[in-house]
Specification:
Helix content: 25-40%
Largest sheet: 10 strands, antiparallel
Radius of gyration: 22 Å
Order of helices and strands: HHEHHHEHEHEEEEHEHHEEEEH
Number of strands: 12
Shape: elongated
């Protein structure tokens, strides 16, 4: 079998494994497995489209030589631990001829499913803390069947994968995003003033909003600033949103002009408004809904 056919067969195996994970989401949030930065890099390669968040490797693999040695060692450990098998081993188990290189490493089904969800899910939402990298990050991968794979990434490079519904994904992510459980009254919109039920959109650069705007008090007391990058990989569209929290007060911020950089909060013109926690979770639900 030629390399193209072998690649198609491998991709088909991964896509099938990814689809099989959907049933686990409807059983309630289901933990799949945990992997390290290094393991995901071994499995995904250096494809920039994979959008891997690898804090531990970024901090410890200082040179190209360090990086390559780390991944070679990790690949050996994964083979010994049964997370991957060689193509020749799988071919023998399945009583077929090897496809492609007999020494190629192929993931076992649940690992293949995780790779498939990461690689093929239409919607990907990445959340990072602009001020506290030690909190790690979150990634969510959503499909048209309403299921979401949640990837919780610790600062030491451990990735925890969970299959769940869209609603459960938001609920599981909320403590990381908001830093607290909801309090009474947060389920309804918060008006900007007593005579207006419509939140006022305030525009300007971040420092201007922080020092001279109706939102200045909240921005100055901000306890966390979370950046969201929402990508529709089929439509090739991208949205950026920041959520700034001070106590039970929340501000949603988006760039006034299109930008694809979720780190650019302090560098671009912004549109900001005071919203409820329910309003923010509604926007997150939109990010995870396939049109």
């Amino acid at each position: 079998m030629n390399d193209t056919a072998a690649t198609r067969a491998r991709e088909g195996r991964i896509a099938t494994a990814a689809a099989a994970l959907a049933s686990r989401a409807h059983e309630g949030p289901t933990a799949l497995l945990s992997m390290t930065d290094e393991q995901l890099l071994v499995l995904s390669g250096r494809d920039p489209n994979s959008a891997l968040v690898t804090p531990w490797v970024d901090a410890h693999a200082q040179s190209e030589q360090d990086h390559d040695l780390l991944l070679r060692s990790t690949a050996r450990a994964m083979l010994a631990g049964g997370q991957v098998s060689t193509e020749s081993t799988l071919a023998a188990l399945e009583e077929r001829d090897p496809m492609g290189e007999p020494s190629d490493l192929l993931p076992v089904p649940v690992v293949a499913g995780v790779l498939g969800r990461r690689g093929y899910s239409q919607l990907r939402v990445t959340a990072t803390d602009l001020d506290a990298s030690e909190r790690g990050a979150l990634q969510q991968f959503a499909d048209s069947d309403g299921t979401v794979m949640l990837e919780q990434i610790s600062a030491n490079g451990i990735h925890h994968f969970t299959m769940c519904t869209r609603e459960a994904a938001i609920e599981l992510a909320s403590p990381w995003i908001f830093g607290q459980l909801p309090t009474p009254g947060e389920g309804s919109p918060l008006p900007v003033s007593e005579d207006s039920d419509t939140p006022e959109v305030v525009t300007g650069r971040y420092e201007q909003l922080r020092t001279d705007s109706p939102l200045a008090d909240i921005l100055q007391d901000a306890e966390r600033r979370i950046a969201f990058l929402a990508e529709d990989r089929r439509a090739r569209t991208t949205q950026v949103m920041w959520v700034i929290t001070a106590g039970t007060e929340h501000i949603a911020v988006q760039p006034a002009d299109e930008t694809l950089d979720p780190e650019a909060l302090e560098e671009v013109s912004l549109e900001a408004l005071r919203v409820s926690r329910a309003g923010i979770t509604a926007q997150l639900s939109d990010f995870l809904t396939v049109a």
